[in-house]
Amino acid sequence: MQFGLFGGARTKPSTGLEDSQGYESFIDYVVEADRLGFRHLFMVEHHFTGQGQVSSSMTVLAYLAARTRNIRLGTAVVVLPWHNPVLVAEQVATLDLLTGGRVDLGVGKGYRKAEFSGFCIPMDEATERFDEAMEVIRKAWTSEGRFSHHGKRWNYENIVVEPMPLQRPHPPLWLAAGSLDSVRRAAREGYNLLLDQLAQTDQIIRRIALFREECERVGRPYSSDMVATARALQMIHSESEREAAYQTRRRTLSVIGDLARDKLPDRVEDDTAPLLGTPDEVIARVRELEAGGATNLLLVDPNASVANLRAFAREVMPAFRANPAVAAD
């Protein structure tokens, strides 16, 4: 079982965008996660929210590259329809060199109408723009010498992308996927799979099973390390804290829940997505996920708390530890 982080930084106090933390606290949080032995950080990127969320994730990850030693640094996600794919390939390769080969590139085609509207890009073009961008990025990292590309959205003539990434043939590619079709696509096209924090436990288990089946169908070797699942962390230590945790969860869902109403139960008490409860309850929830193939969990901490991270490392991680002990004091 492996644990990592999912989230990002912001420049303004949150009004419910609970996957984002203040810059200073976020940096401290990631540095401590690195010290405690967490494996991944996947950092969110958003635009035009009015909430000060990170819009340039690779810039922040470059700073974190100098502050950390072992934790892998990933994007969650670069929405390719908004970006020049050659510049993305160059930036990711540069970051890969700076991190010593610790980069994961999470990509997606986008889902927020306000962001597409802000960039003046029709949402119905998202898939074709994504597909062409990935074609260019793969070509940039695997071509021998110079190459040209002439497509519908992008044209390049006799270019060579520099530098080349340290990881060969390129950093791992992760696709944010929720629909069954997108899960199958991730398996067919060589992506690892990023699963969201709102999906219920049974939904997560079904998607992982589908991903594994599709990998086997196309002859792609499968490992549970190829799937990462975001889960909100709300650990409590007494029953007096439970209602406050439920209230926090309700506030979070009131903001982000409209993005995925079909995933949510009617009552927050029946919501199996968060790791909410006492350490023993959290361990039980993690064991259920582990049994269903979710062996790589990304924690989303709405409190931006180093203390919560240490408590999780001290009270939950030892129940799943197959590696040498980590410092948790």
Give a brief description.
This protein has about 325 residues and is of the alpha/beta class.
How many β-strands, per DSSP? 13
* CATH-level-4 superfamily name: Luciferase-like domain
| CATH C-level category | Alpha Beta
Q: Profile the largest sheet.
A: 8 strands, parallel, barrel
Which oligomeric form is depicted?
Answer: single chain
SSE sequence, one letter per element: EEHEHEEHEHHEEEHEHEHEHEH
Alpha plus pi helix count? 10
Over the alpha carbons, how many angstroms does the gyration radius reach?
19 Å
Question: Total domains, how many?
Answer: 1
Structural class by SSE content? alpha/beta
Low-confidence stretches: 323-327
Keywords, please?
single chain; 329 residues; alpha/beta; TIM Barrel; 8-stranded parallel beta barrel; two-stranded antiparallel sheet; 10 helices; globular
